[in-house]
Fold Isocitrase.
Amino acid sequence: MTTYSNDIDAIETLKQQFGSSWDAINPESVARMRTQNRFRTGLEIAQYTADIMRRDMAEYDADSSVYTQSLGVWHGFIGQQKLISIKKHLKTTNKRYLYLSGWMVAALRSEFGPLPDQSMHEKTVVPALIQELYTFLRQADARELDLLFTRLDAARLAGDETSVELIQNQIDNFETHVVPIIADIDAGFGNPEATYLLAKKMIEAGACAIQIENQVSDEKQCGHQDGKVTVPHEDFIAKLNAVRYAFLELGIDNGVIVSRTDSLGAGLTQKIAVSQTPGDLGDQYNSFLDVEEITEGALGNGDVVIKRDGKLVRPKRLASNLYRFRQGTGEDRCVLDSITSLQNGADLLWIETEKPHIGQIAGMMNRVREVIPNAKLVYNNSPSFNWTQNFRQQAYDILLAEGSDVSAYDRTKLMSVEYDDTELGRLADEKIRTFQRDSSAEAGIFHHLITLPTYHTAALSTDDLAKDYFAEEGMLAYVKGVQRREIREGIATVKHQNMAGSDIGDNHKEYFAGDAALKAGGKDNTMNQF
Protein backbone atom coordinates (compact mmCIF):
# COMPACT_ATOMS: atom_id res chain seq x y z
CA MET A 1 0.00 0.00 0.00
CA THR A 2 1.19 3.51 -0.82
CA THR A 3 0.49 6.80 0.92
CA TYR A 4 -1.81 7.67 -1.98
CA SER A 5 -3.93 4.51 -1.65
CA ASN A 6 -3.84 4.73 2.15
CA ASP A 7 -5.29 8.24 1.95
CA ILE A 8 -8.08 7.01 -0.34
CA ASP A 9 -8.99 4.26 2.14
CA ALA A 10 -8.79 6.63 5.13
CA ILE A 11 -11.08 9.22 3.53
CA GLU A 12 -13.49 6.51 2.44
CA THR A 13 -13.72 5.34 6.06
CA LEU A 14 -14.16 8.90 7.28
CA LYS A 15 -16.81 9.53 4.64
CA GLN A 16 -18.84 6.58 5.88
CA GLN A 17 -18.75 7.99 9.41
CA PHE A 18 -20.37 11.23 8.28
CA GLY A 19 -23.00 9.58 6.16
CA SER A 20 -24.95 11.11 3.30
CA SER A 21 -23.89 14.69 4.05
CA TRP A 22 -20.47 13.75 2.60
CA ASP A 23 -21.83 12.08 -0.54
CA ALA A 24 -20.19 14.72 -2.76
CA ILE A 25 -16.71 14.08 -1.34
CA ASN A 26 -14.56 11.91 -3.61
CA PRO A 27 -11.87 10.11 -1.55
CA GLU A 28 -9.44 9.97 -4.48
CA SER A 29 -9.80 13.70 -5.06
CA VAL A 30 -8.85 14.27 -1.43
CA ALA A 31 -5.89 11.90 -1.79
CA ARG A 32 -4.74 13.88 -4.82
CA MET A 33 -4.97 17.17 -2.98
CA ARG A 34 -3.02 15.73 -0.05
CA THR A 35 -0.35 14.37 -2.40
CA GLN A 36 -0.08 17.82 -3.99
CA ASN A 37 0.33 19.44 -0.57
CA ARG A 38 2.94 17.22 1.07
CA PHE A 39 4.33 19.97 3.31
CA ARG A 40 1.76 21.68 5.49
CA THR A 41 4.06 24.02 7.45
CA GLY A 42 7.38 25.76 7.08
CA LEU A 43 8.76 23.77 10.01
CA GLU A 44 8.03 20.52 8.16
CA ILE A 45 10.05 21.90 5.26
CA ALA A 46 12.87 23.03 7.56
CA GLN A 47 13.14 19.56 9.10
CA TYR A 48 12.93 17.76 5.76
CA THR A 49 15.62 19.95 4.18
CA ALA A 50 17.87 19.92 7.28
CA ASP A 51 17.90 16.13 7.02
CA ILE A 52 18.92 16.46 3.36
CA MET A 53 21.77 18.83 4.15
CA ARG A 54 23.11 16.68 6.98
CA ARG A 55 23.04 13.63 4.71
CA ASP A 56 24.84 15.55 1.97
CA MET A 57 27.47 16.80 4.41
CA ALA A 58 28.19 13.25 5.55
CA GLU A 59 28.43 12.06 1.95
CA TYR A 60 30.86 14.86 1.12
CA ASP A 61 33.03 13.91 4.12
CA ALA A 62 33.30 10.43 2.60
CA ASP A 63 33.78 11.60 -0.99
CA SER A 64 34.66 15.19 -1.93
CA SER A 65 33.42 14.70 -5.49
CA VAL A 66 29.81 14.82 -4.27
CA TYR A 67 29.69 18.53 -3.51
CA THR A 68 26.47 20.56 -3.63
CA GLN A 69 25.46 23.64 -5.65
CA SER A 70 22.94 26.45 -5.71
CA LEU A 71 22.02 29.64 -7.51
CA GLY A 72 20.78 32.77 -5.78
CA VAL A 73 17.14 33.64 -6.48
CA TRP A 74 15.14 36.75 -5.65
CA HIS A 75 11.59 35.67 -6.46
CA GLY A 76 9.52 32.54 -5.97
CA PHE A 77 8.94 32.17 -9.71
CA ILE A 78 12.68 32.25 -10.44
CA GLY A 79 13.35 29.58 -7.82
CA GLN A 80 10.49 27.48 -9.15
CA GLN A 81 11.69 27.63 -12.76
CA LYS A 82 15.20 26.74 -11.66
CA LEU A 83 14.02 23.55 -9.96
CA ILE A 84 11.69 22.65 -12.84
CA SER A 85 14.66 23.00 -15.20
CA ILE A 86 16.89 20.88 -12.97
CA LYS A 87 14.31 18.08 -12.84
CA LYS A 88 13.78 18.27 -16.60
CA HIS A 89 17.44 18.17 -17.61
CA LEU A 90 19.13 16.32 -14.75
CA LYS A 91 16.19 14.13 -13.67
CA THR A 92 16.79 14.75 -9.95
CA THR A 93 17.20 17.62 -7.52
CA ASN A 94 19.80 15.70 -5.52
CA LYS A 95 22.65 17.96 -4.27
CA ARG A 96 20.97 21.10 -5.68
CA TYR A 97 19.82 23.87 -3.34
CA LEU A 98 18.59 27.46 -3.46
CA TYR A 99 20.50 30.42 -2.07
CA LEU A 100 18.79 33.50 -0.68
CA SER A 101 21.16 36.44 -1.00
CA GLY A 102 20.91 39.48 1.23
CA TRP A 103 22.33 41.48 -1.66
CA MET A 104 19.42 40.58 -3.93
CA VAL A 105 16.86 41.13 -1.18
CA ALA A 106 18.26 44.62 -0.69
CA ALA A 107 18.50 45.38 -4.40
CA LEU A 108 15.18 43.90 -5.51
CA ARG A 109 12.73 43.29 -2.67
CA SER A 110 12.81 46.30 -0.35
CA GLU A 111 9.86 48.67 -0.17
CA PHE A 112 12.40 51.49 -0.27
CA GLY A 113 13.43 50.42 -3.76
CA PRO A 114 16.93 49.31 -4.75
CA LEU A 115 19.29 49.54 -1.79
CA PRO A 116 22.99 48.82 -1.26
CA ASP A 117 23.95 45.64 0.57
CA GLN A 118 24.21 47.29 3.98
CA SER A 119 21.35 45.70 5.96
CA MET A 120 19.17 48.71 5.23
CA HIS A 121 16.24 46.67 3.89
CA GLU A 122 13.34 45.52 6.05
CA LYS A 123 14.40 42.36 7.83
CA THR A 124 10.87 40.95 7.54
CA VAL A 125 11.33 40.64 3.78
CA VAL A 126 13.88 37.84 4.32
CA PRO A 127 11.49 35.30 5.92
CA ALA A 128 8.80 36.53 3.53
CA LEU A 129 10.97 35.58 0.56
CA ILE A 130 11.73 32.16 2.07
CA GLN A 131 8.00 31.56 2.44
CA GLU A 132 7.40 32.80 -1.11
CA LEU A 133 10.05 30.50 -2.54
CA TYR A 134 8.58 27.46 -0.85
CA THR A 135 5.07 28.46 -1.94
CA PHE A 136 6.24 28.43 -5.56
CA LEU A 137 8.16 25.16 -5.14
CA ARG A 138 5.12 23.49 -3.61
CA GLN A 139 3.02 24.82 -6.49
CA ALA A 140 5.52 23.22 -8.90
CA ASP A 141 4.83 19.93 -7.12
CA ALA A 142 1.08 20.46 -7.41
CA ARG A 143 1.30 21.31 -11.12
CA GLU A 144 3.48 18.33 -12.05
CA LEU A 145 1.33 15.94 -10.05
CA ASP A 146 -1.82 17.44 -11.61
CA LEU A 147 -0.43 16.58 -15.05
CA LEU A 148 0.20 13.02 -13.85
CA PHE A 149 -3.35 12.75 -12.48
CA THR A 150 -4.71 13.93 -15.84
CA ARG A 151 -2.67 11.28 -17.64
CA LEU A 152 -3.81 8.65 -15.10
CA ASP A 153 -7.45 9.47 -15.77
CA ALA A 154 -6.89 9.28 -19.54
CA ALA A 155 -5.13 5.90 -19.24
CA ARG A 156 -7.97 4.55 -17.09
CA LEU A 157 -10.55 5.80 -19.58
CA ALA A 158 -8.66 4.08 -22.40
CA GLY A 159 -8.37 0.85 -20.40
CA ASP A 160 -4.57 0.94 -20.70
CA GLU A 161 -3.58 -0.95 -17.56
CA THR A 162 0.15 -0.84 -18.37
CA SER A 163 0.11 2.97 -18.52
CA VAL A 164 -2.05 3.14 -15.41
CA GLU A 165 0.53 1.14 -13.47
CA LEU A 166 3.43 3.21 -14.84
CA ILE A 167 1.80 6.56 -14.05
CA GLN A 168 0.69 5.44 -10.60
CA ASN A 169 4.29 4.43 -9.88
CA GLN A 170 5.45 7.92 -10.91
CA ILE A 171 2.91 9.43 -8.52
CA ASP A 172 3.92 7.15 -5.66
CA ASN A 173 7.64 7.90 -6.17
CA PHE A 174 7.31 11.58 -7.01
CA GLU A 175 10.39 13.69 -6.21
CA THR A 176 9.48 17.05 -4.71
CA HIS A 177 10.82 20.37 -5.98
CA VAL A 178 11.35 21.40 -2.34
CA VAL A 179 15.09 21.61 -1.65
CA PRO A 180 17.23 23.23 1.06
CA ILE A 181 17.56 27.00 1.12
CA ILE A 182 20.70 28.55 2.55
CA ALA A 183 19.36 31.89 3.78
CA ASP A 184 21.41 35.03 4.41
CA ILE A 185 20.69 36.77 7.72
CA ASP A 186 23.48 39.31 7.06
CA ALA A 187 25.10 40.30 10.37
CA GLY A 188 21.97 39.49 12.35
CA PHE A 189 20.15 42.83 12.01
CA GLY A 190 20.96 44.03 15.50
CA ASN A 191 21.90 42.51 18.84
CA PRO A 192 21.73 38.76 19.59
CA GLU A 193 18.07 39.00 20.64
CA ALA A 194 17.22 40.59 17.28
CA THR A 195 19.20 37.85 15.55
CA TYR A 196 17.30 35.17 17.46
CA LEU A 197 13.90 36.66 16.63
CA LEU A 198 14.67 36.97 12.92
CA ALA A 199 16.21 33.49 12.80
CA LYS A 200 12.97 32.07 14.27
CA LYS A 201 10.92 33.73 11.54
CA MET A 202 13.27 32.38 8.87
CA ILE A 203 13.11 28.84 10.27
CA GLU A 204 9.32 28.99 10.62
CA ALA A 205 9.20 29.96 6.94
CA GLY A 206 11.21 26.84 6.06
CA ALA A 207 14.92 27.74 6.27
CA CYS A 208 17.10 24.84 7.40
CA ALA A 209 20.40 26.69 6.96
CA ILE A 210 21.16 30.24 8.10
CA GLN A 211 24.29 32.09 7.05
CA ILE A 212 25.55 34.84 9.37
CA GLU A 213 28.62 37.05 9.00
CA ASN A 214 31.04 38.62 11.48
CA GLN A 215 30.55 42.23 10.45
CA VAL A 216 29.07 44.94 12.65
CA SER A 217 25.31 45.16 12.07
CA ASP A 218 25.12 48.93 11.85
CA GLU A 219 28.21 49.20 9.63
CA LYS A 220 27.51 46.16 7.45
CA GLN A 221 28.93 46.26 3.92
CA CYS A 222 28.75 43.97 0.91
CA GLY A 223 31.52 41.39 1.15
CA HIS A 224 32.99 42.68 -2.11
CA GLN A 225 33.15 46.34 -1.13
CA ASP A 226 35.54 48.32 0.99
CA GLY A 227 34.91 49.63 4.50
CA LYS A 228 34.03 46.34 6.21
CA VAL A 229 34.14 46.31 10.02
CA THR A 230 34.31 43.08 12.02
CA VAL A 231 33.34 42.32 15.61
CA PRO A 232 35.31 40.47 18.33
CA HIS A 233 34.76 36.72 18.43
CA GLU A 234 32.75 36.77 21.67
CA ASP A 235 30.21 39.14 20.07
CA PHE A 236 29.87 36.87 17.06
CA ILE A 237 29.64 33.70 19.14
CA ALA A 238 26.65 35.20 20.96
CA LYS A 239 24.87 35.47 17.60
CA LEU A 240 25.82 31.92 16.64
CA ASN A 241 24.26 30.84 19.93
CA ALA A 242 21.17 32.92 19.20
CA VAL A 243 20.63 31.12 15.88
CA ARG A 244 21.19 27.71 17.47
CA TYR A 245 18.69 28.48 20.24
CA ALA A 246 16.16 29.46 17.56
CA PHE A 247 16.62 26.11 15.80
CA LEU A 248 16.37 24.17 19.05
CA GLU A 249 13.31 26.04 20.31
CA LEU A 250 11.48 25.19 17.10
CA GLY A 251 12.53 21.54 17.19
CA ILE A 252 14.95 21.62 14.24
CA ASP A 253 17.74 20.01 16.23
CA ASN A 254 19.95 19.47 13.18
CA GLY A 255 19.57 22.94 11.67
CA VAL A 256 22.66 24.19 9.86
CA ILE A 257 24.60 27.36 10.72
CA VAL A 258 26.96 28.80 8.12
CA SER A 259 29.55 31.10 9.70
CA ARG A 260 30.90 33.69 7.31
CA THR A 261 34.09 35.65 7.90
CA ASP A 262 34.77 38.87 6.02
CA SER A 263 38.12 39.35 7.70
CA LEU A 264 40.14 38.90 4.50
CA GLY A 265 38.87 42.22 3.20
CA ALA A 266 37.95 43.85 6.50
CA GLY A 267 40.64 46.18 7.81
CA LEU A 268 38.65 47.71 10.65
CA THR A 269 37.04 46.82 13.96
CA GLN A 270 34.55 48.76 16.04
CA LYS A 271 35.65 47.30 19.36
CA ILE A 272 38.74 46.26 21.24
CA ALA A 273 38.04 42.76 22.54
CA VAL A 274 37.86 42.02 26.26
CA SER A 275 40.87 39.96 27.38
CA GLN A 276 41.25 38.30 30.78
CA THR A 277 44.49 36.40 30.28
CA PRO A 278 47.33 36.48 27.77
CA GLY A 279 46.56 34.32 24.75
CA ASP A 280 42.80 34.11 25.30
CA LEU A 281 40.39 34.75 22.44
CA GLY A 282 40.16 38.48 23.10
CA ASP A 283 43.93 38.78 23.27
CA GLN A 284 44.28 36.92 19.97
CA TYR A 285 41.80 39.29 18.31
CA ASN A 286 43.60 42.34 19.68
CA SER A 287 46.97 41.00 18.56
CA PHE A 288 46.06 41.89 14.98
CA LEU A 289 45.43 45.57 15.79
CA ASP A 290 47.69 48.18 14.30
CA VAL A 291 49.29 49.72 17.40
CA GLU A 292 52.16 51.95 18.51
CA GLU A 293 54.14 51.57 21.69
CA ILE A 294 53.88 54.51 24.10
CA THR A 295 54.86 55.52 27.59
CA GLU A 296 52.37 56.53 30.24
CA GLY A 297 53.50 60.12 30.00
CA ALA A 298 52.74 60.19 26.30
CA LEU A 299 49.03 59.48 26.74
CA GLY A 300 46.80 61.99 25.02
CA ASN A 301 43.32 63.12 25.98
CA GLY A 302 40.83 60.28 25.35
CA ASP A 303 43.50 57.79 24.32
CA VAL A 304 42.73 54.08 24.61
CA VAL A 305 45.63 51.79 25.44
CA ILE A 306 46.07 48.07 26.00
CA LYS A 307 48.82 46.10 27.66
CA ARG A 308 50.74 43.64 25.52
CA ASP A 309 53.85 41.70 26.56
CA GLY A 310 54.28 43.98 29.56
CA LYS A 311 54.17 47.13 27.42
CA LEU A 312 51.54 49.80 26.81
CA VAL A 313 50.44 50.08 23.22
CA ARG A 314 47.93 52.45 21.64
CA PRO A 315 45.64 51.05 18.91
CA LYS A 316 45.47 53.43 15.98
CA ARG A 317 42.02 54.96 16.12
CA LEU A 318 40.46 56.65 13.13
CA ALA A 319 38.28 59.75 13.13
CA SER A 320 35.29 57.41 12.72
CA ASN A 321 36.19 55.92 16.15
CA LEU A 322 37.08 52.64 14.44
CA TYR A 323 40.36 50.77 14.94
CA ARG A 324 42.58 49.47 12.19
CA PHE A 325 44.09 46.01 11.80
CA ARG A 326 47.64 45.58 10.59
CA GLN A 327 47.90 45.07 6.85
CA GLY A 328 48.58 41.53 5.74
CA THR A 329 46.76 39.89 8.66
CA GLY A 330 43.55 39.04 6.79
CA GLU A 331 44.26 35.38 6.11
CA ASP A 332 45.41 34.76 9.69
CA ARG A 333 42.25 36.39 10.99
CA CYS A 334 40.09 34.29 8.62
CA VAL A 335 41.70 31.11 9.92
CA LEU A 336 41.18 32.12 13.55
CA ASP A 337 37.59 33.19 12.82
CA SER A 338 36.84 29.88 11.12
CA ILE A 339 38.31 27.66 13.81
CA THR A 340 36.61 29.66 16.55
CA SER A 341 33.21 29.49 14.83
CA LEU A 342 33.39 25.73 14.33
CA GLN A 343 34.42 25.30 17.95
CA ASN A 344 31.40 27.32 19.01
CA GLY A 345 28.46 25.82 17.19
CA ALA A 346 28.83 26.62 13.50
CA ASP A 347 28.50 23.74 11.02
CA LEU A 348 29.90 25.21 7.81
CA LEU A 349 32.27 28.03 6.95
CA TRP A 350 32.13 30.84 4.41
CA ILE A 351 35.33 32.74 3.68
CA GLU A 352 34.68 35.74 1.46
CA THR A 353 37.63 36.17 -0.90
CA GLU A 354 38.57 38.84 -3.41
CA LYS A 355 39.26 36.41 -6.27
CA PRO A 356 38.56 32.78 -7.24
CA HIS A 357 41.93 31.17 -6.58
CA ILE A 358 42.05 27.56 -5.41
CA GLY A 359 45.52 27.92 -3.94
CA GLN A 360 44.49 30.84 -1.74
CA ILE A 361 41.31 29.12 -0.53
CA ALA A 362 43.10 25.81 0.10
CA GLY A 363 45.88 27.58 1.98
CA MET A 364 43.41 28.87 4.56
CA MET A 365 41.25 25.73 4.70
CA ASN A 366 44.26 23.46 5.17
CA ARG A 367 45.22 25.48 8.26
CA VAL A 368 41.66 25.21 9.58
CA ARG A 369 41.61 21.47 8.91
CA GLU A 370 44.77 20.98 10.95
CA VAL A 371 42.57 21.78 13.95
CA ILE A 372 39.17 20.57 12.67
CA PRO A 373 39.71 17.85 10.06
CA ASN A 374 36.17 17.78 8.67
CA ALA A 375 35.84 21.55 8.26
CA LYS A 376 33.76 22.34 5.18
CA LEU A 377 33.31 25.50 3.19
CA VAL A 378 30.40 27.21 1.48
CA TYR A 379 31.98 29.26 -1.29
CA ASN A 380 30.63 32.23 -3.19
CA ASN A 381 31.43 31.86 -6.90
CA SER A 382 30.79 35.57 -7.01
CA PRO A 383 29.67 37.65 -10.01
CA SER A 384 31.80 40.38 -8.41
CA PHE A 385 34.83 38.47 -9.70
CA ASN A 386 35.95 39.03 -13.27
CA TRP A 387 36.26 35.29 -13.90
CA THR A 388 37.61 35.63 -17.43
CA GLN A 389 40.35 38.05 -16.46
CA ASN A 390 41.30 36.22 -13.26
CA PHE A 391 41.63 32.82 -14.89
CA ARG A 392 43.37 34.15 -17.99
CA GLN A 393 45.92 35.75 -15.71
CA GLN A 394 46.30 32.45 -13.86
CA ALA A 395 46.67 30.64 -17.21
CA TYR A 396 49.26 33.21 -18.32
CA ASP A 397 51.27 32.60 -15.15
CA ILE A 398 51.05 28.82 -15.64
CA LEU A 399 52.27 29.03 -19.24
CA LEU A 400 55.06 31.39 -18.22
CA ALA A 401 56.18 29.05 -15.42
CA GLU A 402 56.19 26.13 -17.88
CA GLY A 403 58.53 28.05 -20.18
CA SER A 404 55.92 28.61 -22.92
CA ASP A 405 56.14 31.61 -25.21
CA VAL A 406 53.62 34.19 -23.90
CA SER A 407 54.84 37.09 -26.01
CA ALA A 408 51.56 37.08 -27.98
CA TYR A 409 49.59 37.99 -24.84
CA ASP A 410 49.30 41.28 -23.00
CA ARG A 411 48.66 40.28 -19.37
CA THR A 412 46.99 43.61 -18.64
CA LYS A 413 44.45 43.23 -21.48
CA LEU A 414 43.48 39.57 -21.34
CA MET A 415 39.74 40.32 -21.49
CA SER A 416 40.14 41.07 -25.18
CA VAL A 417 38.04 38.94 -27.55
CA GLU A 418 41.18 38.26 -29.60
CA TYR A 419 42.26 35.80 -26.89
CA ASP A 420 39.03 33.77 -26.88
CA ASP A 421 40.26 31.08 -29.27
CA THR A 422 43.86 30.83 -28.13
CA GLU A 423 45.77 28.29 -26.07
CA LEU A 424 45.62 30.66 -23.10
CA GLY A 425 41.89 31.32 -23.52
CA ARG A 426 41.08 27.61 -23.78
CA LEU A 427 43.24 26.77 -20.76
CA ALA A 428 41.53 29.48 -18.70
CA ASP A 429 38.05 28.35 -19.73
CA GLU A 430 38.84 24.75 -18.81
CA LYS A 431 40.01 25.86 -15.37
CA ILE A 432 36.78 27.84 -14.94
CA ARG A 433 34.75 24.79 -16.03
CA THR A 434 36.44 22.52 -13.49
CA PHE A 435 36.80 25.12 -10.73
CA GLN A 436 34.00 23.72 -8.58
CA ARG A 437 35.13 20.11 -8.95
CA ASP A 438 38.80 20.95 -8.37
CA SER A 439 38.26 23.28 -5.42
CA SER A 440 35.92 20.82 -3.72
CA ALA A 441 38.66 18.19 -3.92
CA GLU A 442 41.54 20.52 -2.96
CA ALA A 443 40.03 23.20 -0.73
CA GLY A 444 37.23 21.55 1.26
CA ILE A 445 34.36 23.28 -0.53
CA PHE A 446 31.14 21.40 0.23
CA HIS A 447 28.76 23.90 -1.36
CA HIS A 448 29.21 26.15 -4.37
CA LEU A 449 26.81 29.01 -4.92
CA ILE A 450 26.47 32.07 -7.11
CA THR A 451 24.87 34.85 -5.10
CA LEU A 452 23.07 36.82 -7.81
CA PRO A 453 23.09 35.00 -11.16
CA THR A 454 19.41 35.56 -11.85
CA TYR A 455 19.86 39.31 -11.29
CA HIS A 456 22.29 39.28 -14.20
CA THR A 457 20.39 36.83 -16.42
CA ALA A 458 17.15 38.78 -16.02
CA ALA A 459 18.91 41.95 -17.16
CA LEU A 460 20.69 40.22 -20.05
CA SER A 461 17.61 38.44 -21.42
CA THR A 462 15.54 41.62 -21.13
CA ASP A 463 18.22 43.54 -23.02
CA ASP A 464 18.26 40.89 -25.76
CA LEU A 465 14.49 41.20 -26.25
CA ALA A 466 14.20 44.97 -25.90
CA LYS A 467 16.96 45.88 -28.37
CA ASP A 468 15.17 44.09 -31.23
CA TYR A 469 11.48 44.26 -30.26
CA PHE A 470 11.55 48.06 -30.12
CA ALA A 471 13.50 48.21 -33.37
CA GLU A 472 12.99 46.62 -36.81
CA GLU A 473 12.33 43.04 -35.64
CA GLY A 474 9.09 43.84 -33.81
CA MET A 475 7.15 40.69 -32.86
CA LEU A 476 9.73 38.48 -34.55
CA ALA A 477 12.12 39.35 -31.72
CA TYR A 478 9.75 37.75 -29.23
CA VAL A 479 8.60 34.88 -31.42
CA LYS A 480 12.07 33.85 -32.61
CA GLY A 481 13.99 34.67 -29.43
CA VAL A 482 11.47 33.49 -26.84
CA GLN A 483 8.31 31.63 -27.88
CA ARG A 484 9.80 29.47 -30.63
CA ARG A 485 12.59 28.40 -28.29
CA GLU A 486 10.10 27.68 -25.48
CA ILE A 487 8.09 25.38 -27.76
CA ARG A 488 11.06 23.56 -29.24
CA GLU A 489 12.99 23.21 -25.98
CA GLY A 490 10.01 22.14 -23.90
CA ILE A 491 10.04 25.13 -21.55
CA ALA A 492 7.00 24.73 -19.32
CA THR A 493 6.16 28.44 -19.24
CA VAL A 494 5.04 28.37 -22.87
CA LYS A 495 1.72 27.28 -21.34
CA HIS A 496 1.72 30.16 -18.91
CA GLN A 497 -1.89 29.66 -17.83
CA ASN A 498 -1.07 26.11 -16.78
CA MET A 499 2.06 27.29 -14.96
CA ALA A 500 -0.01 29.85 -13.06
CA GLY A 501 -2.38 27.13 -11.85
CA SER A 502 -5.34 27.35 -14.23
CA ASP A 503 -5.60 23.60 -14.83
CA ILE A 504 -5.25 22.83 -11.13
CA GLY A 505 -8.06 25.29 -10.51
CA ASP A 506 -10.21 23.62 -13.16
CA ASN A 507 -9.78 20.24 -11.49
CA HIS A 508 -10.61 21.70 -8.11
CA LYS A 509 -13.76 23.23 -9.57
CA GLU A 510 -14.76 19.77 -10.75
CA TYR A 511 -14.07 18.34 -7.29
CA PHE A 512 -16.20 21.04 -5.69
CA ALA A 513 -19.05 21.46 -8.20
CA GLY A 514 -19.02 18.35 -10.39
CA ASP A 515 -20.57 18.75 -13.86
CA ALA A 516 -21.68 22.30 -12.98
CA ALA A 517 -18.08 23.51 -12.86
CA LEU A 518 -17.29 26.41 -15.18
CA LYS A 519 -13.82 25.57 -16.51
CA ALA A 520 -11.29 27.88 -18.13
CA GLY A 521 -9.46 25.22 -20.12
CA GLY A 522 -12.11 24.26 -22.66
CA LYS A 523 -11.90 24.12 -26.45
CA ASP A 524 -11.78 27.92 -26.82
CA ASN A 525 -8.73 28.31 -24.59
CA THR A 526 -5.93 29.68 -26.78
CA MET A 527 -3.40 27.69 -24.77
CA ASN A 528 -4.59 24.68 -26.79
CA GLN A 529 -2.44 26.00 -29.64
CA PHE A 530 0.64 24.64 -27.86
